[in-house]
Design goal:
By secondary structure, the protein is of the alpha/beta class. It folds into 2 domains: 35-63 and 326-464, Lyase, Ornithine Decarboxylase, Chain A, domain 1 (Beta Barrel); 86-321, TIM Barrel, CATH 3.20.20. Helices cover 28% and strands 25% of the residues. It has 12 helices and 23 strands. The chain has helices spanning 48-55, 64-85, 101-109, 119-127, 144-153, 163-175, 211-222, 244-261, 288-306, 319-322, 365-369, 459-464; strands at residues 35-37, 40-43, 46-47, 59-63, 89-94, 113-116, 135-137, 157-160, 180-187, 190-193, 196-199, 209-210, 227-233, 268-270, 312-315, 326-341, 348-356, 376-377, 386-392, 401-409, 417-421, 442-446, 449-454. Strands 4, 16, 17, 18, 19, 20, 21, 22 and 23 form a 9-stranded mixed β-sheet that branches. The protein has an 8-stranded parallel barrel with strand order 5-6-7-8-9-13-14-15, surrounded by 6 helices. It has a 3-stranded antiparallel β-sheet with strand order 1-2-3. It is globular. The structure holds pyridoxal-5'-phosphate. Pyridoxal-5'-phosphate binds at residues 94, 96-97, 138, 235, 238, 272-275, 316-320, 425.
């Protein structure tokens, strides 16, 4: 039996409700300048249809005002919360979420430090003109060349992640005749994701070292004249909605911090990033100022209990600054209604597959983490009752899903533009050339203007890396176009 498209579809996940209006833009999912004007979705004062016409699809769109204002708000939230308890905060933008020269400049202008985790990210931040003193460098396996470069440019801090790295950084710093500031990444045993956190004695993961090994590791750091130990670093996970995991982790770290004070100065404590955002109407992250206050109070209470001076407390948010600022525009190419059995007795319902011109190459998160997203038709509104759809990409993988489940107007059709909100973080950053699709351009919109901040890749870009490619021997093509065209 096929179920009416307007009724709840039994294939829908329990959290997804049939919307009263499948054109409506759910609060919290979209960047702040997104609205519907005359039916068309606009962002930064530019209509989605104009963006698609000028730059093609798929297209990453970043709402510049949203990104800049969130950067300032997040920084202020931590500054204010920690000032309230009598210390300072240091907020690093986690460049891994999305980094380009332009975005690094926005973050710098907003007063944020920047955290990088490869020589490539370091090069982008330096290309943006960011003062190296305001950069931190992470990673569980930094190459010797990366360490050398970071020390050479005068990076503010290196987060040491293994015992071997202590000597490597110390040697590089000695060679350059500098005293390099370092932090030590530890596993607090707290692992948090969205609503819940898990606290274990040991974490089975590649990052950092266990709390029990940290005292010796710090002694080894302190044995090197070329290293200046700044404090502990810990990152408990991503897309975290509440403060409990941070509070538990901070409590564990402070006990260790106290032990370390017996051997010298420990001016800082870095609690990492991981603050969540809404991807669907089911997501309800706590506002960042609330989280900042809770964490500040916990750290202050912990220090009082242990009779410690309050350290400067550092954070590394990425997603919570840039995630909601981004959306991706796609064009619908095909639709298919697939009967899917949902009960043993053979009852079935229709799932409509809506295939778009991008997919896992521009957004790997659904395939990597089963991440949920939502979508809206961007070029028009429709009064046709909603149908459950699954937005699929165009790649040769059945797991190539952009939006697993969403209700869209039942007349969604080839040629429609779809906008997927909250793609600012870890989409461009994780993009690939799977199936030889060129990576889409990134366009920043603001006050009615749109400009490319990272250009899209062409077929020529992709072929240029192929050592056997000889333009003279190739069959003629009209390949100046992007290969999605
Ligand atoms: C060490 C570290 N800091 C900060 C972040 C940023 O996390 P988020 O973007 O979730 O805030 C990550 C993300 O993986 C991380 O590994």
């Amino acid at each position: 039996m096929a179920v009416s498209a307007a009724a709840p579809n039994p294939l829908a996940p329990p959290w997804l409700h049939v919307p009263a209006d499948a054109n409506a833009l759910a609060p919290g999912l979209w960047s702040r300048t997104v609205s519907r004007e005359g039916g068309t979705l606009t962002v930064g004062g530019v209509a989605a249809s104009e963006l698609a016409e000028r730059f093609g699809t798929p297209l990453y769109v970043i709402d510049e005002d949203d990104a800049r204002s969130r950067a300032v708000e997040v920084r202020r939230a931590f500054d204010d919360a920690f000032a309230e308890v009598g210390t300072a905060a240091k907020v690093y933008y986690a460049g891994k979420a999305f980094l380009s020269v332009e975005v690094a400049r926005w973050m710098d202008a907003a007063g944020l430090f920047i955290d990088v985790c490869s020589g490539g990210e370091l090069a982008v931040a330096l290309a943006a003109g960011v003062d190296p003193e305001r950069l931190g460098f992470h990673g569980n396996n930094k190459s010797l060349a990366e360490i050398e470069r970071a020390v050479e440019v005068g990076i503010g801090a290196i987060v040491i992640d293994s015992l071997q790295e202590i000597d490597r950084v110390a040697e590089a710093a000695a060679r350059h005749g500098v005293r390099q500031s370092v932090r030590l990444r530890v596993n607090s045993g707290v692992h948090a994701h969205t609503h819940a956190f898990l606290a274990t004695a040991h974490e089975d993961q590649k990052f950092g070292i266990g709390l029990e090994a940290a005292v010796d590791a710090v002694a080894r750091i302190r044995s090197h004249d070329s290293l200046a130990f700044k404090g502990l670093h810990c990152h408990i996970g991503s897309q975290i909605f509440g403060a409990d995991g941070f509070a538990e982790s901070a409590a564990r770290l402070l006990t260790l911090h106290r032990q370390l004070l017996e051997g010298g100065d420990v001016p800082e404590l870095n609690l990492g990033g991981g603050f969540g955002i809404a991807y669907t109407s089911a997501d309800d992250p706590a506002p960042i100022d609330q989280l900042a206050r809770r964490i500040a109070e916990t750290v202050a209470a912990g220090c009082e209990e242990l009779d410690l001076p309050l350290p400067v407390v550092a954070f590394e948010p990425g997603r919570s600054i840039i995630g909601t600022a981004g959306l991706t525009l796609y064009t619908v190419g095909t639709t298919k209604d697939v009967p899917v059995a949902f009960q043993d007795d053979g009852e079935s319902a229709l799932r409509r597959y809506v295939s778009v011109d991008g997919g896992m190459s521009d957004n790997a998160r659904p395939a990597l983490y089963e991440a949920d997203y939502s979508a809206r038709i961007a070029n028009r509104v429709s009064s046709v009752p909603p149908a459950l759809v699954r937005v699929a990409g165009k790649h040769c993988e059945s797991g190539d899903i952009v939006v697993d489940a969403e209700y869209l107007p039942g007349d969604v059709a080839p040629g429609d533009l779809l906008a997927v909100p909250a793609t600012g973080a870890y989409c461009f950053a994780l993009s690939s050339n799977y199936n030889y699709l060129g990576r889409p351009p990134v366009v920043a919109v603001r006050g009615g203007d749109a400009r490319v901040i990272v250009r899209g890749e062409t077929i020529d870009d992709l072929l240029a890396r192929d050592a056997a490619y000889d333009p003279a021997a190739a069959r003629p093509t009209a390949s100046k176009e992007r290969n999605q065209a």
